[in-house]
Design goal:
Layout lengths: L4 E9 L5 H13 L6 E7 L6 H11 L3 E6 L5 H11 L2 E6 L11 H9 L5 E5 L7 H18 L11 E4 H6 L10 H7 L5 E5 L15 H19 L4 H31 L11 H29 L7 E4 L1
Parallel strand pairs: 1-2, 1-4, 2-3, 5-7
Antiparallel strand pairs: 3-8, 4-6, 5-6
Length: 318
């Protein structure tokens, strides 16, 4: 079935009341004569300023824009997940609301999805207008992500990305996993992932919403997404495997000690008490740890099958 819209643009927004009117006007200029059937979805992530009032006014004056509002700040991942659920365009583009991403890149990114057959196109801010204190940790973070994910992208954290519609409907973006959507897409079977050099603008209004702690969190999130994507639906496959190996390792050592003790007794040799040997406690510890791993996997399976908690709640739509 053919999609009614060519393009959906999702813009997570948190306290960006000044930039949104200018951003929407910029989008309309950039797409004029190139893309006719599109929608702009603003997601107000529980802003404390007038962002929602601005979104409502824009939706009244611009039929192609509409918005969602969270009743509290839930994070960028939740905002993107809500936007993905609402998106109807054959190509879905995400971008930041702070005017640092250029909408003029969108038509070419769309073409790469539609004509070149890419599943994901990630923006690459090759020339950045950020201080060294921000660019250096970003380079280290991107290097580590490339090595662990096997995806050759230079800028995983760029907010300007384009996806085919099936990709955004397949990936499950939770927690702080918005940085790793290309990784989630790859592990969901969408492996044709490319990138495009994009313009990076200096921030015009307000201040950045991210501090230095995001880089440490980024590495922790990478470990999390690696685990969740591979074992999130079957934690027993990881914990049960390690638990079984540890238990049988300890049990094997215990049997070996017992066998040696019995053999020595049959030969009339006086040998040390098993409980006096350090190997006995190593075996006992391994069996206990193995049992704990196995139980962790079992409890994880129960939680996975019964967890229905939502990370966000939409309070209004326009």
């Amino acid at each position: 079935m053919k999609n009614e819209l060519e393009l959906s643009i999702i813009i997570p927004s948190y306290n960006e009341e000044e930039s949104l009117p200018e951003l929407l006007a910029w989008i309309e200029r950039s797409l004029a004569g190139k893309v006719e059937d599109y929608e702009v979805i603003f997601v107000d992530d529980g802003s404390s300023d007038r962002t929602w009032n601005v979104i409502k006014k824009l939706s009244q004056n611009h039929p192609k824009s509409h918005g969602l509002r969270f009743n509290k700040n839930s994070g960028k991942s939740a905002a993107l997940r809500a936007g993905f659920a609402e998106a109807k365009g054959a190509v879905v583009v995400t971008m930041d609301a702070d005017l640092q991403d250029s909408p003029e890149e969108i038509p070419e990114m769309m073409r790469m999805i539609q004509e070149d057959g890419y599943d994901v196109i990630s923006g690459w801010k090759k020339k950045r207008y950020d201080p060294m204190s921000k660019t250096l940790p970003t380079k280290i973070f991107n290097w580590a992500t490339r090595r662990m994910s096997g995806i050759d992208l230079h800028d995983f954290n760029c907010g300007l990305k384009a996806y085919s519609l099936p990709v955004v409907k397949a990936v499950d973006v939770r927690g702080e996993m918005h940085r790793y959507i290309p990784v989630l897409a790859k592990w969901s079977g969408y492996s044709k992932i490319g990138e495009k050099v994009v313009q990076h603008q200096e921030r015009k209004y307000g201040s950045t919403k991210f501090g230095m702690e995001r880089f440490m969190n980024g590495f922790l999130d990478l470990l999390t997404v690696s685990f969740v994507t591979r074992f999130g639906k079957s934690p027993m496959h990881l914990f049960g495997l390690f638990g079984t190996l540890m238990f049988f390792l300890g049990f094997g050592i215990f049997l070996a000690l017992g066998g040696i003790k019995l053999y020595n007794m049959s030969q009339g040799d006086v040998s040390r008490n098993i409980a006096d040997m350090s190997s006995f406690y190593i075996a006992l510890t391994a069996m206990i740890i193995g049992t704990q791993f196995f139980l962790a996997g079992f409890i994880g399976e129960l939680i996975t099958r019964h967890s229905t908690q939502e990370e966000y709640k939409i309070s209004e739509k326009v």
